[in-house]
Amino acid sequence: MTIFDVSIDALTGGATDLDRYRGSVLLVVNVASRCGLTPQYDKLQPLYDTYRDRGLVVLGAPCDQFAGQEPGTSAEIDEFCRVNYGVTFPMTEKIEVNGPGRHPLFRELIGDGPDIQWNFEKFVVAPDGTVAARFGPRVEPDDPELVATIDKLLPH
């Protein structure tokens, strides 16, 4: 099983078929609207814009498990991201990334690894669905190592 076999709903409703991203490079990020790291959206969107034609998909996964920093409804989160950061990349429903309610997407991403530390932890997923790299919350989306990891996996 890979993340492409996981079922998850889109933030705006309806199922997000992760299988449609098979063959793409995914950057999966647990996001929050009221976090000190929220301005990372300003770098996630340009990263998506720069590399999406080569096959990058940024997938935001809102989570309210860290100090209640994503308290809004799906509609509120969607509006906040679009209005304040111009987000056009796909977003999932609000989910849990740690504990007994951990969504299967994050069970696949984390595997036997440690729990998510905080909002904006990043997973780079290779086109075959394997996790190629994991970056901590404070690693910015334009960090050279993160960008190089993505670039190496994308077709040239």
In short:
The protein is built from four helices and six strands; from the N terminus they run E-E-E-H-E-H-H-E-E-H.
Look at the structure and give the CATH class: Alpha Beta
Shape: globular
Question: In percent terms, what proportion of residues is strand?
Answer: 15-25%
Query: Can you give the helix content as a percent range?
Result: 25-40%
Strand order of the largest sheet: 4-3-5-6
Active site: 35
GO molecular function: peroxidase activity
Protein name: Glutathione peroxidase
GO biological process, one term: cellular response to oxidative stress
Walk me through the structure.
- The chain has 156 residues and is α+β, with helices and mostly antiparallel strands.
- It has a single domain (24-153), classed as Glutaredoxin.
- 26% of the residues lie in helices and 19% in strands.
- A 4-stranded mixed sheet has the order 4-3-5-6, with helices on one face.
- The chain is globular, with a radius of gyration of 14 Å.
- The mean pLDDT is 96.
- InterPro entries: Glutathione_peroxidase, GPX_AS, Thioredoxin-like_sf.
- This is Glutathione peroxidase.
SSE diagram, text form:
Layout lengths: L6 E3 L5 E3 L7 E7 L9 H11 L4 E7 L11 H12 L18 H7 L11 E4 L5 E5 L8 H10 L3
Parallel strand pairs: 3-4
Antiparallel strand pairs: 1-2, 3-5, 5-6
Defining key terms:
alpha+beta, single chain, Glutathione_peroxidase, two-stranded antiparallel ribbon, GPX_AS, four-stranded mixed β-sheet, Glutaredoxin, Glutathione peroxidase, 26% helix, peroxidase, Thioredoxin-like_sf
